[in-house]
Specification:
mainly alpha, rod-shaped
Length: 174
């Protein structure tokens, strides 16, 4: 499986050896970057294209484009999650994609819509409870005033009745 060149005039053998070295290097770089992105979680990992040309650069660009197409939704989901953590439920995941990534976007957006509706409903109920409590407070204050007025009137009636009883007693002693 190893190629050996017979002498410097063996151009084909030399080219095959160089191609084998380049292929091994591209495979190793690709495996390292895929490991870093997939296992280590560094979705910014990319293959360096600085010293590549031709088909080797095209292969590296293809892998980098694949990594970018997978990383973009992750960054967008992270942006939305951070907004949610800050209390902003208005953000939505908008991806020009298909398949599983489109399904992810739809599911996340549907979940956000339901959370937003749930919180809006809770706010509405809280507002109604607050309004009812305010009405009860006003009614309680009115009842307290009325009770005070009734107590005052009862006191006046009692005083008047006592006065009448005293006048009747005085009249009967005459």
């Amino acid at each position: 499986d190893d190629f050996t060149e017979f002498d410097e005039r063996n151009v084909l053998g030399t080219a095959l050896m160089k191609m084998k070295e380049n292929l091994e290097q591209v495979i190793n770089e690709t495996n390292e970057v895929l490991y870093e992105a997939g296992v280590e979680g560094n979705v910014n990992a990319r293959i360096s294209t600085d010293r590549k040309s031709g088909v080797w650069k095209e292969m590296a660009d293809s892998v980098n484009n694949l990594l970018s197409s997978m990383a973009t939704p992750i960054f967008e989901v992270n942006k939305i999650a951070n907004a949610m953590a800050d209390g902003d439920l208005s953000q939505r995941l908008v991806l020009n994609t298909k398949g599983d990534l489109k399904s992810l976007a739809n599911s996340l957006n549907k979940g956000l819509d339901k959370i937003d509706a749930l919180l809006s409903g809770s706010v509405s109920i809280t507002d109604k409870v607050h309004a009812s409590a305010s009405e009860m407070l006003v009614s309680g204050e009115e009842m307290s005033r009325s009770t005070g007025e009734i107590a005052s009137a009862t006191s006046e009636m009692s005083s008047g009745a006592q006065s009448q009883v005293q006048k009747v007693d005085e009249a009967s002693q005459l």
